[in-house]
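>> received
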Amino acid sequence: MKLVPTINFGGNCREAIYIYEKAFGGRINCLITYGEADDPAYNPLLKEGQGEYIYHSELLLGGERIIMADHIDIEFETCYSNFLTVMMDTKEEVQRAYEAMKEGSKTIYPMEATPYSSCRVVFVDRFGIRWGIMTEQTER
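>> returned
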């Protein structure tokens, strides 16, 4: 068994996957639009312009896979109770990733040391996804 996080978007998945790829040094493994998928279950639901929305994509981060897609069957809403935590090796890596993602974001906890992390920042990015980027505690 393998747990694979899945992130849903409301039309801006393509922009998000490229920002996340840059922020975390990831690799896009798959990127399929609704038009390319030509899925009979979704074709009747597509509105004008949604053929270019992302039907399915996969981003590899540190050997782990994240699935990302634009959903056309439900209205996208920001969810603050669920979020992804990315563990980095150094404070500098945390800072670089946050710099790549902070434009248009809402900071929940500023970048700081905590009892469990030498460097942690928690924010909701411009796509409505909540992230925690941190290191392990190395300064005790």
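>> The radius of gyration is 16 Å.
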